[in-house]
Specification:
Elements (H helix, E strand, L loop, with lengths): L1 H49 L14 H7 L5 E8 L4 E10 L2 E7 L7 E7 L1 E3 L6 E3 L14 H8 L4 E3 L25 E6 L16 E3 L10 E9 L3 H4 L1
Antiparallel strand pairs: 1-2, 2-3, 3-4, 4-10, 5-6, 7-9, 8-10
Length: 240
């Protein structure tokens, strides 16, 4: 009889110890899970707060449409379309109004979610296309959107070669080794524009499919400026 009682007592003791251990285990797991969740949230907030948009290329950190809409208010964003290659290639895009800046996020054709490239234009038109303002955004290269041709040449340290104005590929800058300059190391594409409303003299000799350069007589006095930036995200092959 004593053996039966003793066994029962030991069984009760073991069950009790097991329940206590399970209870302790559950408490620890919950605490660890909560800690991990809180750490993840802190890390996420830290990443968000660390984002800086000093330079044009910095906006590429928001490399998905979801991230863009999470970081900026919907009232600052406008979904639209962007056309390339003389109006033959269409991409869905979203224009961000960040204070005095406007930056366009162009989405990949395959998913309309992944960022393919950033665009920004010095000359900004009003909604009714009646007038313009000019914005200035610095690039990581060292030249700013809206800079004059003279400033562009001084930064580059060499003459700038570019296509004529008044057509689809107006102001395209030629980045060739034989031309030299800092522009060869710049990952952001640069295109020139001109003030077509400038009537200080007749500038029509600068119109058309031709190559111009900043060393030509009177070119630095022309109303030419850095008109647009384009930055393509590195491909996976390039990143590797």
């Amino acid at each position: 009889m004593k053996q039966v009682l003793l066994s029962a007592s030991m069984l009760a003791l073991l069950v009790s110890c097991g329940e206590d251990a399970a209870s302790d285990s559950n408490v620890d797991t919950t605490a660890d899970s909560t800690a991990v969740t809180q750490d993840s949230l802190v890390d996420s907030v830290a990443v968000e707060e660390s984002l800086s948009f000093e330079y044009f290329e910095d906006y590429a950190a928001l490399n998905t449409k979801t991230k863009l809409y999470e970081h900026f208010d919907a009232s600052q964003l406008k979904d639209d379309t962007t056309w390339y290659a003389e109006g033959t290639v269409m991409r869905l895009s979203t224009t961000l109004k960040d204070g005095d800046r406007e930056v366009k996020f162009v989405w990949a054709e395959k998913d309309n979610e992944t960022l393919e490239n950033l665009d920004a234009y010095a000359q900004l038109w009003t909604e009714d296309w009646s007038s313009t303002t000019r914005q200035s955004i610095p690039s990581q290269c060292g030249i700013s959107l809206g800079a004059s041709l003279k400033e562009f040449v001084e930064w580059n340290g060499a003459a700038i070669h570019f296509s004529g104005f008044g057509w689809d590929y107006a102001g395209g800058v030629f980045e060739l080794p034989e031309y030299g300059g800092k522009i060869l190391d710049c990952e952001t594409g640069i295109r020139l524009d001109m003030d077509y409303n400038d009537d200080s003299q007749d500038w029509t000799h600068l119109y058309g499919d031709m190559e111009l350069n900043s060393d030509m007589d009177g070119m630095l006095e022309a109303p030419i400026f850095v008109g647009s930036f384009t930055y393509y995200l590195p491909s996976e092959e390039t990143a590797e």
